[in-house]
Specification:
about 500 residues; alpha/beta; eight-stranded parallel β-barrel; about 45% helix
Length: about 500
């Protein structure tokens, strides 16, 4: 065995786990009662913010995401807090100007984030470098992220080379982000070993359990020298979430890789989240199911549910097999982008359109056009020239960093919400999600009725001091048929003839 080397644990319960299993509906009131206990565990860090939680707070929960962060920072006095940042997309689904990105990172660190995990859907480092630079300037930990995928272009050497580039850009550590549960155990071993030997930075592995391989991948990664793995408490693990913290800690106990965490405390944490999860109607297959389609077609589980929803609306659910077979073809046409927000939605929707119309690229979405124009960044591989010609005609794609085409946005955003601002951070919420934030601000000031909670009449807030009312959670069974990231682009999603 190797020399003794403690394995760090980042717990995702307060961000990715409930985003994956509870449709991002966990409220601050579900988090704070267990914060003191979680703060005693000794995690490497807690992922508590970013990803889809930012807009879900305003869009579905009538919560201010910035206030959530501040309250969590107050509650966690010992443990480092981290967030997921989509590079130049920040926490949204399109690119934003550098002034918005810089101010967002300043406010994020000032409000309590210690570690920022920065990724780009296309692994285009141009879309990550400014976020990395601003994070370093604020004194936070810069975690450069590799979006893991499989294609003729993507292999161990490719990702190790990307790790070296991330180090050159100032990364303090490297995260392997396996968002679809694709990484096989021995590939995890080889990639971690390659990064440790050739890059020399701490390496963290983030996997989803979708294919059923994540725990095995973690074990091989630990043997290869991984420094930290991402897990979720037992009640919010498995399925499309992460491996269970409790099981990973138990598996490594008494080995050279012992995490040092207390299983008894972890069990009490899981007990809390068992009670939280019981407030939601989660289909059993969401938690217990293993989706091997992710290996056959490289399609994440949430993306399959999205495709099913789109087909059902067109009374064409029986054509799902054709769509599943079309997705890899569209992905190849687009230069093999990793299937993660927003590229997964772009590819999946186009596959549905191609199948239903019976002619490939007869009609295309606005997002496909913008992708081919280079407005999302540089695709990993060569675009199919026939598709490029059919969609763009004689228009030449841009070759510059997409954000270089954007004018500063903060000053105009500040003018537009001057009468609704209650804190400086409101400008950022509005700049990133204008429609969602505007409605939230109006509800906050009583200009619109509050969002109803499940079981309450519209416009009626839960009675104060009524634990029963506060405990009512939404029935999420229908939501699992629709990928909530369809909220991307804040409502803009049009189909145009090619």
């Amino acid at each position: 065995m190797n020399e003794k080397r403690k394995t760090g644990i980042t717990d995702t319960s307060l961000r990715d786990a409930h985003q994956s299993l509870l449709a991002t509906r966990m409220r601050l009131e579900d988090m704070l009662p267990v914060a003191e206990l979680m703060d005693e565990v000794g995690y490497h860090s807690l992922e508590v913010w970013g990803g889809a939680t930012f807009d879900a707070c305003m869009r579905f929960l009538d919560e201010d995401p910035w206030e959530r962060l501040r309250r969590l920072r107050q509650a966690f006095r010992k443990t480092r807090l981290q967030m997921l940042l989509r590079g130049q997309n920040i926490v949204g689904y399109r690119h934003y100007a550098d002034d918005v990105l810089e101010e967002f990172i300043k406010r994020t660190v000032a409000n309590g984030i210690d570690i920022i995990r920065i990724f780009d859907a296309l692994n285009d480092l141009r879309n990550m470098e400014q976020a990395m630079r601003y994070t370093r300037a604020e004194g936070a930990h810069v975690q450069g992220t590799i979006s893991y995928t499989i294609s003729p272009l993507h292999n161990i050497d490719h990702f190790v080379a990307m790790g070296r580039q991330l180090k050159e850009l100032g990364a303090d550590s490297i995260c392997i982000k396996d968002m679809a549960g694709l990484i096989a155990p021995y590939d995890a071993y080889d990639l971690v070993r390659g990064l440790k030997e050739q890059v020399g930075l701490p390496v963290q592995l983030h996997c989803h359990y979708t294919s059923g391989m994540a725990s095995m991948a973690y074990l091989k990664a630990v043997e290869a020298g991984v420094d930290v793995v991402d897990t979720a408490n037992a009640a919010l693990s498995l399925g499309s979430s992460q491996p269970p913290t409790d099981s990973v800690v138990a598996a490594l106990q008494g080995t050279p890789y012992d995490t040092g965490l207390d299983l008894e405390i972890l069990a009490r944490v899981s007990d809390h989240f068992k009670a939280v999860a019981q407030k939601f109607s989660i289909p059993r297959e969401i938690i217990m199911g293993v989706d091997t389609n992710v290996l056959s077609y490289q399609i994440p589980g949430g993306m399959i549910s999205n495709l099913a929803s789109q087909l059902a609306e067109q009374k064409a659910l029986h054509r799902m097999r054709e769509v599943l077979e079309e997705v890899p073809r569209v992905r190849a046409d687009l230069g093999y982008p990793p299937l993660v927000t927003p590229s997964s939605q772009i590819v999946g929707t186009q596959a549905v359109v191609n199948v239903l119309l019976g002619e490939r690229y007869k009609m295309v979405s606005t997002e496909i056009k913008n992708y081919l124009r280079g407005l999302y960044g540089r695709p990993p591989g060569q675009i199919n020239e026939a598709v490029l010609k059919k969609v763009l005609k004689d228009e030449a794609p841009v070759t510059v960093r997409p954000a270089d085409l954007l004018k500063p946005q903060l000053a105009e955003a500040r003018r537009e919400i001057a009468g609704l601002m209650m804190q400086e951070e409101d400008v950022l919420s509005y700049a990133i999600f204008p429609n969602v934030a505007l409605d939230f601000f109006k509800r906050r000031q009583g200009l619109l009725p509050p969002l109803p909670r499940e079981g309450e009449p519209a416009g009626q807030a839960p009675p104060k001091g009524n634990p029963a009312a506060a405990a009512v959670g939404p029935d999420l069974s229908a939501l699992y048929r629709v990928d909530l990231s369809l909220a991307w682009f804040d409502g803009v999603h049009m189909i145009y003839p090619a």
